[in-house]
Structure formats: structure tokens, C-alpha cells
Amino acid sequence: MGGPDRTYDLNIHPPTTSYFLLAAAGIEKGASQPGHEEAGVVSLSQLYEIAQVKIEDPGFKLRGKGLEDVVRSLLGSARSLGLRVVPRLTVEECTTFRQRRADELAAQAAALKEAEAAK
User: Fold this and answer.
1) Annotated domain spans of the chain
2) What's the alpha-carbon Rg for the chain, to the nearest Å?
3) How far apart are CA 43 and CA 9, in angstroms?
4) What is the pLDDT of residue 105?
5) Where is the Large ribosomal subunit protein uL11 C-terminal domain (predicted)?
6) Are strands 83-86 and 40-43 parallel, antiparallel or unpaired?
7) Residue 1 belongs to what H/E stretch?
8) CATH topology of domain 17-88
9) What is the helix (H) or strand (E) element at residue 116, kind and residue range?
10) Of the candidates 2, 3, 39, which has an alpha carbon nearest to the alpha carbon of residue 21?
């Protein structure tokens, strides 16, 4: 809290791991059924870029984690969000995946609306 001179210590931490992963994948939310559907795709180089930021996070610093450990942690987080991690990712592959995913989500929404109407 504030001291007698009304000063404060404010610690600002980097955003959460899921924020970085979803931003890298260009999506707003992860898969509703991770392991059964893919919500997005990220490259290994994107994971390393995120790891460079996250390694400075106090949570990783306190545990003495190295870059490889942080990347492994990010791999697990990516899988739990329904993100596929690929060695390389081209703009065309990314665009194709996003279009296919948008079509899948639209089909799911239409099926849900149709089921609601049938009730």
C-alpha cells in the first residue's frame, strides 16, 4: 500500500501465456474441446519469441527455468488451448487454416441454431 509519503510500488508483469499464444495464432479464444479440434496454429519460432518475453516473468525466474523449459511449458499451454504447433508456418498456410476454422465455426453455429429452432 501507500507509504507515509503516499508513494506506491507498482509491479507490472507481462501478459498471460494464453494471451500471447492466442495473439500469435490470431484468434480470440481457444478450442472448446482441446484434443478434438484445432482452434489455431502457431510456429515453433513464435513460441521461442514468446519464451524470450516470458522468461523474464517472475514466475519463471523464481523457478530458475531456462529458455528450453519455458518453450516446453508454452508447448503444453498451446496444446491445452487447442493450438497446433508446427516447425514453420507460411502466410498461405495460416490463411488457409483460418478460413477453414471460420467455416467450421459457422457450420457449428448454424447446427446449434437449427437444433434450437427444432426444440
Assistant:
1) 17-88
2) 19
3) 37
4) 83
5) 14-85
6) parallel
7) none
8) Arc Repressor Mutant, subunit A (1.10.10)
9) helix 91-118
10) 39
